[in-house]
Amino acid sequence: MEILRDDNGKKGQFTATINGEQAGLMTYTWAGDNRFIIDHTEANPAFSGQGVGKGLVMAAVDFARENQFKILPLCPYAKTVFERNADIRDVLFR
Length: 94
Description:
Elements: E1 2-7, E2 11-18, E3 21-30, E4 35-43, H1 52-67, E5 70-73, H2 76-84
Parallel strand pairs: 4-5
Antiparallel strand pairs: 1-2, 2-3, 3-4
């Protein structure tokens, strides 16, 4: 799975592809200079059970850690990933 990030300065997205086909998408909105809101995560049903959604959230966590950003997960899926994985809460905006 390949995950790429695209950002226009106000909003951005992480896109997952598998074998050249879009497997999932996660969108975010900047909320200041050092935090962003994950507002939507979706996975292509054709790739169900392959960890696409979690992979997208983890890509956002890696991006946040590398840049000392915080994440506010408003998307229900992303929020659940944070609730189930204590080891990624260091980037959680509280």
